[in-house]
Each structure stands twice: as structure tokens, then as C-alpha cells.
Amino acid sequence: MRHIAIVGSGPAGYYTAEAAGKQWGEDVRVDVFDSLPVPYGLIRTGVAPDHQSIKKVSVRYEKTALSEEVRFVGNVQVGRDVSIAELQELYDAVILATGAPHDRNLDIPGEDFANIFGSAAFVGWYNGHPQFADLAPDLSGRHAVVIGMGNVALDVVRILSKTEGEFAGSDIVAHALDALHGSEIETVTIVGRRGPHQIMMTPKELGELMHLERASPHVDKNDLPPGADDAILEPGLRKSVTLLRDFAAIPENIHGEKRIAIEFDFFASPKAFKGKDGKVSALEIERTTIEKGRAVGTGEVYEIPADIIVTCIGYRSSPIEGAPFDERAGRFANDDGRILPGLYCVGWAKRGPTGTIGTNRPDGYGVIELVADDIGNGSRNRGRAGFDELAEKRRLDIVTFRDWQKIEQAENAAARDGSPREKFVDIESMIAALR
Ligand code: NAP
């Protein structure tokens, strides 16, 4: 028998659990830990609430979670309730699938002004992550600024721009829907330090900006390189750039019909946040030029008004005592998934915050191949029996997968019309729903 602990129940965690089941069948026991009482990580709290089709992948994780070999151990924080060293004593392999839940900082002056948020916090707020449910962003100003030109920036722009009606069928949480309904925003400026050929936005997600009820995307055609230059781009990026060209060709009268202007500000490197009475009021930007693919400052500085700013510039993993951490890269120090003997990482915790949900599948299967090579037939470790004793001694209030299904039922029952669920946004309510 092999005993495996996986820390984190998001895509990386469940693909790894699935791979362990495929690898060893009945000869493995897998415990999937999560600090929250609810599973699925980024599927629940990261993927945009109006992208329900992407969330359907959780059906696959549920199948794994309900298999004989796999167990969900929710409401247990590794590093606080149980240490990595303790898990290593009990399990043949401990695999960190903790994702990258923290925002990278821009490290420019003025970050302490109110109403500046990182995307982890802002996305967590509209998705009901208990850690960010109280964020209370002030949406009463006219100008929003979103920094970064990746898909997270697009999610945030879309959520800031949609009407209440456009959220039909989504699972955006009630507090966010209410706040967005009262929003006074008229411009959303997307600030990118490089140019149209360097965006990280994928075509399907970028194309959604064309179909918003009350917002329309503006691109200055002078920012676009000559059309012939697009030939060198890989097909996905070429499609995205073609969309930017379509945005630049939208006639002024169409823009005029929409309340919100989504402005693309290319070649724009954030220099400082400016504020008034403790709250952000503007973003200072330096114009850039691109040299060998890198943004280089030109010395030309300007300001744009900003009543709320969301930085969408990437994420970092959270260090846990007992696992060496690469501070510069913001993830666990690892050699293709191996951290230390018996300790592994997978997904964003291993490679940083890039790729789609599906990228985690080969990652999960890959790490199980390493574990299989390293542990052979397993050992005399006690696995879940040993953990249960420890949990009992520490009076940990463990949430099982069946418990989660009760929480899920309660969330589904509380859904407003047309929505799949109304999420609980604090841990106490989640626990209360299952007791
Ligand atoms: P991302 O794709 O890496 O984009 C980050 C953006 O931030 C880039 O435009 C980057 O510009 C910019 N940036 C980084 N540091 C900066 C700085 N110091 N100053 C100014 N700009 C800076 O990351 P992401 O948007 O967080 O997305 C993470 C991953 O999740 C991606 O793989 C993404 O595709 C995926 N995702 C997918 C979906 C979807 O498929 N629907 C939705 C959300 C996220 P540079 O390029 O110049 O560094």
C-alpha cells in the first residue's frame, strides 16, 4: 500500500489524485488536504463567475474525490494545523498543489493608498473567497484602471463592465453583484507596459469585449504595428492582435452608445500611484518603447485618473515551513517537481502561474511518475490512520467530501433565479450548513 498526501484540492491536486488512482488502483490511499471546507481551489474562487462552462471540469474532480482510494480532508491548513514534517512521517509522499494564491507586487510608490487591489484579492472578492469577502472596493468613482494585459486582466475588466442582466446564469456572489450594480464607472483603462504584439490575452477571452451590453473596447490605431508584421506571430496571438485591429476600427458612433469605454493603453509602464485623502486618485505612467522584446522607459511621464486600480500582473505561491522556497520565482524550489526526498510540488506551486487548467493534468500525471519511481512498493507508513489519530488529538474539525456535498446542496438551494449557486462567503456559514 502507498500513502500519498496532496496539499491543495484545486485542479493540480485533483489531477494528481486521479493519476495516483490510475497508477496504483486499490493499492494506494490518497488524502487531499485543503485549508477551506470546500474543494476545487481556483475552479471555485479563481475562474470568472460568468465562465460557468470552464467550471464544469469539477465534475471530473468529483469523480476522483468519490473513488474508494481518495479522501478529501477539508478545513485543515498544512503549516498551521499539521506540519509538512508530520505529514512526511505519515505518508510515503507529500505533494504540494497549493497553487499561487498571493498577488505579486508592483513595488512602486503609493501602494498603500486605499482602493488599490491585487487581482487575487479582487477576484477572490467577486468569487466569494472567505479571505477577501470583506474587501468592499469603492466603485463610486468614474475611472477604473486595470494593470496587466493577460487573461486575468480581461476577467476583471469584464466583471467591472457587465450589467446586472449580463450576470444571469453566473455564480457571482450577491455582495459583488450588489456593489457592481451601484457602480458609477465610465472608463476602464487597461495598462500594458509593452505593445499589441506582446499581449498575453487569448482570442476567445479578448473577443468577449466586443459583445458587452454597455461597454466597448477602444484601441488607438496608431499603437498598432503595420498589418504585415502580424505574419510572424503564432496563430493564437495573431488572432488576438486581429481583434485589437477590429477594436481600432469600431466607429465613434458605436462607442457613443455605450456608457463604459474600455481603453487600451499600450507602451505604458506604471511608475507611481497618486492619491488624495488617503485614497488613490491617479496612476503615473512612463511611456515605453520596445527593445528586443523588453519595455524600455522613454522618460515621457503622464498621469491618468484612477478611482480604483486592480493590478493583474501575476501571482506567487505561499511558502510553508519545511519546504524550501524560491523567493525570486515565488514558488517552491524544485527540480522538475522534486523538492526534497518524499516532498514534491505540482501545478502553479511548481512552475509558477502560467497555462490553462488543462496544463495541470500532465503535471499531475508527471509528478506521480516521479513518486512511483521513488517509493516503489511503499513503506510501513500509517497514512490516513496516523493522520486521523493526530487530528483527533488536536481536535481538528475536518470536513469530508460528503460534508462538502451538504454545503454544496445548501448553496445550490440558495441560488437566485437562473444561477447555479449562491456561495457561502465565510467559513463559519459553510460549517454551519453541514452540522
Ligand atoms: P499573465 O498572462 O502572465 O499576464 C500578466 C500581465 O501582467 C502581462 O501583461 C505582464 O506584462 C504584466 N506585468 C507583469 N509584471 C508587470 C509589471 N511589473 N508592470 C507592468 N505589467 C506587468 O498572467 P495572468 O493574467 O495573471 O494569468 C495567469 C494564467 O492564468 C495565464 O496562463 C492565463 O492565461 C490563465 N488564465 C486563463 C483564463 C482563461 O482562459 N479564461 C482566465 C484567467 C487566467 P509583460 O508581458 O510585459 O510581463
Instruction: For the largest sheet, list the strands in their spatial order.
Output: 3-2-1-4-19-18
Mean pLDDT: 97
General form: globular
CATH hierarchy: architecture of the largest domain: 3-Layer(aba) Sandwich
Instruction: Please mark out the parts with pLDDT under 50 across 5 or more consecutive residues, or reply none.
Output: none
CATH superfamily descriptor of the largest domain: NAD(P)-binding Rossmann-like Domain
Q: What are the bound molecules?
A: NADP nicotinamide-adenine-dinucleotide phosphate
Explained architecture:
The protein has 435 residues and is an alpha/beta fold. The protein folds into 2 domains: 216 residues, Rossmann fold; 208 residues, 3-Layer(bba) Sandwich (FAD/NAD(P)-binding domain). The chain has a 6-stranded mixed β-sheet, with helices on both faces. A 6-stranded parallel β-sheet has the order 6-14-7-8-10-9. Strands 11-12-13 form a 3-stranded antiparallel β-sheet, with no helix packed on it. α1 crosses α4.
Summarize the SSE layout with pairings.
Layout (H helix, E strand, L loop, with lengths): L1 E6 L3 H14 L3 E6 L8 H4 L6 H4 L2 H8 L4 E4 L10 H7 L2 E4 L5 E2 L12 E3 H8 L16 E5 L3 H11 L12 H8 L5 E5 L11 H5 L7 E4 L16 H14 L3 H5 L3 E6 L2 E9 L2 E13 L2 E12 L2 E4 L3 E2 L8 E2 L4 E2 L5 E3 L2 E3 L2 H4 L8 H16 L7 H11 L7 H13 L13 H8 L1
Helix pairs in contact: 1-4, 1-13, 15-16
Bound molecules: NADP nicotinamide-adenine-dinucleotide phosphate (NAP).
Top keywords for this entry?
435 residues; Rossmann fold; globular; 2 domains; 32% helix; 6-stranded mixed beta sheet; 6-stranded parallel beta sheet; binds NADP nicotinamide-adenine-dinucleotide phosphate
